[in-house]
Specification:
The complex is a heterodimer of chains A (224) and B (453). Chain A has 224 residues and is mainly alpha-helical. Chain A has two domains: 123 residues, Up-down Bundle (Four Helix Bundle (Hemerythrin (Met), subunit A)); 36 residues. Chain A has seven helices and no strands. Chain B is mostly helical. Chain B has two domains: 294 residues, no CATH class; 45 residues. Chain B has 14 helices and four strands. In chain B, strands 1-2 form a two-stranded antiparallel sheet. Classes of the chains: A mainly alpha (224), B mainly alpha (453). The interface between A and B is large, with 39 and 52 residues. Chain A: It comes from Microtetraspora malaysiensis. Chain A: It is an enzyme of class 7 (translocase). Chain A: It is found in: Cell membrane.
């Protein structure tokens, strides 16, 4: 980092590309929350992440850029799409995609953006770092993570692991509480007859209620 | 450039624009021709394995069969189903084909050569993180399958898309992990440097004996190579992991609604280019890249000039023949077996192997504290075994309980005459006319006629 002010005018090709990528990222992010088509929202999210990855590339952070594509575009949004398709996957506009909390959400979003931008501008407005090719390769990044930032990295890993285990525990219905009386109404109780009961089972737990809602929603859509 | 090991990262980025264009066009043309003759080669080889002749009418040895098929596809009527999401439906074949080609840009074909007076490596480009680019492109290609499945608005297609997304994401993890040992061994993620590291093996110094180390990572990192060989079949949706288009149960899977025309040709193209890409990665990372194997490499000129392109091509043909051989030999696995194999076998094995390899690697660093490393390793092994035994007994108990429960259900079913002693689907679901609530006319029950959308 230096405080020496570089030449900003005329802008170099990299700077123009970086600005354009920023515009693409912002525009597609807006489309994610404003589009009325569920799957298109996920696809605009792909465009947004792709533009971010392009931004990293222009800043010579190659490793971060490709990991961004690999993890966010290649895994997380695919899992989102997977979840959408596993439940309903509507084609066309969905009326339920509009939220009544629009104004509140927009206020919170603008507020968060304002805080972040202020912090970055206050902190780094006069700091410039020269871009050198190869600065974002795996070796430099690895050395930085596992030497200077190893404690936050490990803490984050433990946090992710805890979230993972929590998700598994929440989603598994075959893990029963130690006291069997508390689980008497569950759908997977061994005393359930082999034929399922009436189509609307009592919502004893979250999973049963969700399945019931999804099923009825699908039938009504097919009818209308 | 080092004349014995070939180009490294510093040799890239100096090409004039026209040379880059020549290389890109060359890769594109080679891949297109590769697909044309790859289809022919696969059909011919699998026919011979099954005691048939295969295509033998169009041209000599049926060589023009794929050309004829391509012409036929171009001339067929282009059918667009009425209710599809048009943008996504048209975009999906493009999304699946483009990344497949892009991944080939970092594949090294040979050492430095002189093209029209310019010294340049036989590789379009290289990055410090080139292997990640290949993985990223593979993960973008999944969108083509998922969107083709969703956009064509058909239950078969959407099931194919779902299967594919789950399968490719799972096998990508195992694939990425199988690269980790290569990165540890080579100390770089750049494809040209990984090839250079496989130029000559070092020596193992075991009790004063100098054992020459094999130079191919396929031999020195055998577990990684075996896992990669399995995951590359899963990643490209090839037999025995071709569930996304399992025609036995899903008609054509994700491309059911792309019934004819050039859009279907794009899917075929992408499948074969993907096969070539994963084969190229296997060659580059595990099979010595463009370098000639031992009996040829005695000849001094084997690894210079344009010859390595021939070795690369021969290796590519052999790996592709392996794909065909697998297809001719193995049946399709069941979906739950596929996922269980990926998550419960390949990934844990891979992690254990990486730990083991990292320990060996740490032991070979001269100034390392060997006692500390060995103690740490022993603690991890003992801890891992303890956890495994604990869960093994727990799972065994759970399995026994489950078996007892199933037995109990069968007992109950045997006593119920309407079920015939076998578990049958519930007959009171809305799309059956079977069981009606008491006092309700049969017209009140509306049949659900179609699919998931």
């Amino acid at each position: 980092m230096t405080s020496q002010v570089p030449d900003l005018w005329p802008p170099s090709a990299q700077e123009v590309v970086f600005l354009l990528l920023g515009v693409v990222a912002l525009g597609s992010a807006l489309l994610v929350v404003t589009t009325r088509q569920l799957v298109h929202a996920a696809l605009w999210l792909v465009v947004c992440f792709g533009a971010l990855a392009g931004g990293y590339l222009v800043l010579t952070a190659e490793f971060v850029a490709w990991v961004q594509v690999l993890i966010y575009v290649g895994a997380i949004v695919v899992l989102l799409l997977f979840g959408i398709m596993l439940t309903r996957a509507p084609i066309g506009r969905s009326a339920g995609l509009d939220s009544g909390n629009r104004v509140t959400a927009a206020t919170v979003a603008v507020g968060t953006a304002a805080v972040l931008v202020t912090v970055v501008v206050q902190g780094f407005a006069t700091a410039y770092t020269p871009l050198e090719p190869g600065g974002g390769a795996a070796a430099t990044l690895g050395a930085s993570i596992f030497r200077s930032w190893v404690l936050p990295f490990e803490a984050l890993s433990v946090l992710l692991l805890a979230a993972l285990i929590g998700a598994i525990v929440l989603s598994r219905t075959d893990i029963r509480p130690a006291n069997p009386a508390a689980d008497a109404g569950g759908p997977a109780a061994p005393t359930t007859p082999p034929h399922p009961p009436d189509p609307a089972p009592p919502p004893a737990d979250g999973s049963g209620a969700t399945a019931g809602e999804t099923g009825s929603g699908r039938v009504s859509r097919d009818g209308g | 450039m080092n004349p014995t090991t070939g180009p490294t990262l510093v040799d890239f980025g100096h090409d004039p624009l026209w040379l880059s264009i020549i290389k890109a066009v060359f890769i594109f043309v080679v891949l297109m021709l590769g697909v044309l003759f790859g289809v022919w080669f696969e059909r011919k080889l699998i026919s011979r394995m099954q005691h048939r002749y295969g295509p033998n009418r169009a041209g000599k040895f049926g060589l023009l069969q794929s050309v004829a098929d391509g012409l036929k596809m171009g001339l067929k009527e282009d059918i667009m189903p009425r209710t599809v999401d048009k943008v996504v439906y048209l975009l999906a074949p493009v999304i699946i084909a483009v990344p497949a080609f892009l991944a080939f840009s970092v594949m090294p074909f040979g050492p430095m050569v002189s093209i029209f007076g310019v010294e340049t490596p036989l590789q379009l480009t290289d990055l410090p993180v080139a292997v990640l680019l290949v993985l990223a492109m593979a993960s973008i290609g999944v969108y083509g399958i998922v969107l083709a499945g969703w956009g064509s608005r058909s239950p078969y297609a959407i099931l194919g898309g779902l299967r594919s997304s789950a399968q490719v994401v799972s096998y990508e993890i195992a694939m990425g992990l199988s690269f980790v040992a290569v990165f540890l061994a080579a100390g770089t993620l750049s494809t040209s440097e990984i090839v250079a590291k496989q130029a000559g093996g070092g020596t193992w110094d075991v009790f004063g004996l100098e054992i020459p180390q094999p130079s191919w990572y396929a031999i020195s990192l055998l577990p990684s190579f075996l896992i990669y060989a399995i995951t590359m079949l899963g990643e490209t949706n090839r037999v025995p992991f071709d569930l996304p288009e399992g025609e036995g149960e899903l008609v054509g899977g994700f491309h059911t609604e792309y019934s004819s025309s050039l859009k279907f040709a794009m899917f075929m193209l992408a499948e074969y280019v993907n096969v070539f890409t994963v084969s190229g990665v296997a060659i580059t990372l595990f099979l010595g890249g463009w370098r000639a194997p031992w009996p040829i490499s005695i000849w001094e000129g084997a690894n210079t000039g344009w010859w390595p392109m021939l070795w690369f091509f021969i290796k590519l043909v052999l790996v592709f023949a392996f794909f065909v051989w697998v297809r001719a030999s193995l049946p399709r696995v069941r979906y739950d077996q596929l996922m269980a194999f990926g998550w419960k076998v390949l990934i844990p094995l891979n992690l254990a192997w990486i730990l083991l390899y990292a320990t060996l690697k740490a032991l070979r660093v001269p100034e390392s504290n060997k006692a500390f490393i060995l103690t740490l390793g022993a603690i991890i092994v003992v801890g891992g075994l303890a956890i495994w035994f604990r869960f093994d007994t727990l799972l065994q108990r759970r399995r026994e309980a489950k078996a007892a429960q199933i037995e109990e259900e069968f007992e109950q079913l045997r006593e119920e005459p309407e079920a015939g002693g076998f578990p049958v689907p519930p007959l009171d679901l809305p799309h059956y006319h079977g069981v009606l609530p008491a006092g309700q006319a049969s017209t009140a029950v509306k049949e659900v006629t179609s699919g998931s959308n």
